[in-house]
Amino acid sequence: MKKIIVLQALFFGAFSQLSAQETTKKAQELKEVTIIKTKKAVEQRADRTIFDFANQPSLSSGSVLEGLKKLPGLIASDIAGMMYQGKQLDVYMDGRPLNISSNELNSFLEGMPANAIERIEVITQPGAEFPATSGGAILNIITNKNAKNFLSATYTNSTNVTNYDRLRWRVNNSVLLNAKNKYFGWQLNMGQNYRESAMWTSLIKEENSSQTLLSNTDADRTNRTNFIKSAVTFDLKKDRLLLNYDVNYNNNGSTTLSNGPGYATNDNSNTKGWRQDAVATYQKRFEDKTKKLDFKFNFNRNQSDFVMNSLGYVLPVLDNSSDQKYYNFKFDYSQPIAFSDEGKISFGSLHEELDFQTQNRGVTNLDYQRKTTAGYFELQTKFKSMSFILGGRAEDYDISGKTNTTDLTPFKQFRFFPNASAQYNFNKSVFFNVNYNKKITLPSTSALNPNNTNYQNPNIGYAGNPNLQPTIYDNYEVKLSAYDYAFIGYSLSSAKNQVIQRVNLNSNVVVNSNENVPEVKIHNFNIGMPIPYMLFTKGLAETMKMNVNPDEMNFIFVYAAYQLHQIPSIETKGFWVYNLMSQMVLPSKIKFVANFSYITAKGNYYYFIANKPFNNTVDLSLSKKFLKDQLSVSINADDIFNSNRFVFNSYNTPLLLSNKMDSRRFGFSINYKIPTKNRLAKETPILLNKDKKEETGIIGN
């Protein structure tokens, strides 16, 4: 069995190398042809996995959150947040932390169209250059694209419908404009998202072989989001100045019918939010192009207002608001070292401040401040087939605040966070990696917020916990990767003071809150393997002779993982995660993709036990390019068997929680690159030199 797996990885990798060599050879023979690197659907690197969203209609047909849920190994839920291969994720956008989590994060990602995303990077081994507050891993959402030396425009649209009790629409539109001349480049990406959705939930108390319905809700939701992302880049000889400004406005409403013992309500809630993000980056470059010095200043403001009214009540049941301001300044320097192949040293510093205030009916009930000062040093070396990374990051925290009744428990500490990695390269495409890092996660402001910003009725309530303490992680990982697609690995994430959502029952009232758990260990074993279909029709010998681009071939990608959450004094069980992705290129170059996801029942997901399998979906998509690849059209059908639902028991309570959304949807999406008559359009210039990080475009860095 092991030999078969190794052979599959080797010949799949051989396809990649032979195809790349053939493409390069032809490009070199034709002097006027520019060599362009073809993007890969999935790319495995030593410290991260990269998923291409822009060219994957199966991922980009809906919202960002819907696309993320299809990634193998990633679990996104309202119960325990976002995890990748057992590691809690800190979510970034264009290299900058979003500083939101939980329900707010899901709402934000649900309101952003996936076709506005270029790629997703899951950084499983964040080194010393990343903030120690990144926790277990980082999910970096890249929205930017490179500008051209002429005005270019791209229009995208995605339209989906669901039909349960009634027809509901989900429509988004966006336009990307960019241009570049010898002095500066600019980019403007703007769009809107309109989303109608439904959610049905129930809370049942099971005691003495009988069931009591505590709450049954039927929510009809409408989300409206508008966004603008802008950037200007100035080339100052070798140096570069980047200015970014992003704004996101959402207006989300919900009508909820609810009933339970002794009550029936008709409630309306509305959430309005403004998110603004401004960045100024100066990149200093030297005669030695491998030497770099970057300075970056970032200001972010996130404002939210939540109001809930109930039929029969004159005043709002809930009237809460929050205002978060975030400041960040940092510098990063790196240069090569002479005694090592491809080695370098890096160091830098960071200072950030966060101010967070919440109000209940106009009265401030939380005033929270956080200051962090940090510095890091990292050494990377390579000797023949061995590569090493050794680094450390020191961070000083000053966290304080007060509620309207008392002061919060202060957190003033200086901590050191080491990281180390060793990698053996069997060849350019096969490597074995071992990694260790220590990280910390500071409690998110949404978990600290004492106000309820979620739906409630007489039997359901939500409460934040302003006294949550930071979580310290020790992360270990070993992984064998082959040719970008195949891998096998094991990771252990050991957390002290892990913040976990708890659901408790007080009489017949269910209270959702967050608390620190002294210790949690998450074990994760995972394997991913592509299997070409021609293996079954032509056999191994003939398959090895073929020269095929793996991103254009017929294959099935198999992913499986076993995850175990260990909590002291609790007997926990693990669960299996399965994902099958089949790609087939049909006649007329129509690409058919089928995606199957499944997570087994009876396992512990922190303090929740899955009563039934969840993330259980079958998604289908057909896509084709027209007009010399200027127009891309795809149609999709998600959750075609309507099997995706969450049914969990809450540990040490008689509660059974059930949640079902209108996840079965049908739709189409288009992406049209508007043609230009500009004579420069025939050129394919290199906008940003390699020493200026061309891979990140002009938005973000």
The low-pLDDT segments are: 1-37, 679-701
Task: Indicate the proportion of strand residues.
Answer: over 45%
Residue share in helix: under 10%
What's the count of strands?
Answer: 35
Give the radius of gyration: 26 Å
- Summed over residues and divided by their number, the pLDDT gives a mean of 83
The number of helical elements comes to 6
Tell me about the biggest sheet? Answer: 22 strands, antiparallel, barrel
Globally, the shape reads globular
The helix/strand class is mainly beta
- How far do the termini sit from each other? 43 Å
Task: Give an overview of the whole structure.
This protein has 701 residues and is mainly beta. It contains 6 helices and 35 strands. The strands form 2 sheets. The protein has a 22-stranded antiparallel barrel. Strands 1, 2, 3, 4, 5, 6, 7 and 8 form an 8-stranded mixed sheet that branches. A hairpin with a 3-residue loop joins strand 23 (471-482) and strand 24 (486-506). The longest helix has 28 residues, at 2-29. The chain is globular, with a radius of gyration of 26 Å. The model is unreliable at 1-37 and 679-701 (pLDDT under 50).
